[in-house]
Amino acid sequence: MSSLIVRNVDDAIVKALKSRAARHGRSTEAEHRAVLADALLKTRRRSPAEVLAAMPDVGEDADFVRAQGGEAARVFD
Q: What is the dihedral of CA 3, 21, 15, 38, to 10 degrees?
C-alpha cells in the first residue's frame, strides 16, 4: 500500500473531515481513505436527466412519433 500526504488543506475541510469521521466512528485517516475510495472507485448512479442528455442527437422528431390508428408503419422492409 502507498502513502499519500496532502498539504495546504483548508481548515474548514479538515474540520469537516474530522466531524464526518466522528459520525462514522473511525479515525480521520480512515475517513480520508473512505472519501477517496467513494469518490474515485465507486460507480456513480446517473440521474435520468444525465442519461437522456448523454444520448446522441440522431434522427428527426417525426421519426419517433407514435403511429396513430390500427397499424404501425413498416420500417424494416
A: 60
